[in-house]
Specification:
By secondary structure, this protein is mainly α. It contains eight helices and no strands. The chain has two domains: about 90 residues, Rna Polymerase Sigma Factor, Chain: A; about 45 residues.
């Protein structure tokens, strides 16, 4: 079967066998991209699992009408996510000491509380950075243009960089 048939089966009938076949088909492709990132061995399996999640996302969201092959579409999604994760990697790792101190109690990672000077900047921080809303959704909710939202995001990033 080709990619389009598998995606059709998966999107239309939620056929898990079609998705499993996609996983088998793209297994080597995933490992090839992961190895280009030069990760430590303890992180490789996490990145592989993330790649499978991105394959699922690509299979669900792929539309043939956009004139792009599924392989290229998936590669774009995969590379963006893996590069993003690699960039965030030092911040995501827990120290080994905190993990092994008490294995019975769940580990809670507290988020840093950020207070900004301007109320609109604070609102943008809460919506965009904390809750992960899209620029379009924020613009609609806050009655702003997309450009205004992008400008506020830029100012928030600059303030966060200056604090570090």
């Amino acid at each position: 079967m080709n990619d389009y048939e598998l995606i059709y089966l998966f999107q239309t009938y939620q056929d898990e066998q079609a998705f499993e076949f996609l996983v088998l088909k793209y297994h080597r492709f995933i490992w090839k991209i992961i190895h280009t990132l030069h990760l430590e061995s303890k992180e490789v399996e996490d990145f592989y699992q993330e790649s499978i999640l991105m394959l699922h996302k690509a299979a669900v969201t792929f539309r043939e009408r956009h004139q792009k092959s599924f392989t290229r579409y998936y590669e774009l999604i995969l590379r963006r996510q893996l590069y993003y994760l690699k960039k965030k990697l030092p911040k995501l790792l827990l120290s080994e000491e905190s993990f092994f101190k008490d294995l019975q109690a769940p580990t809670i990672i507290e988020e840093e509380v950020v207070v900004l000077n301007h109320p609109k900047e604070q609102k943008i921080y809460d919506l965009y950075f904390s809750k992960g809303q899209s620029v379009k959704a924020i613009a609609t909710a806050e009655n702003l243009t997309a450009k205004q939202v992008y400008n506020l995001i830029y100012r928030v990033r600059q303030q966060l960089k200056s604090r570090r």
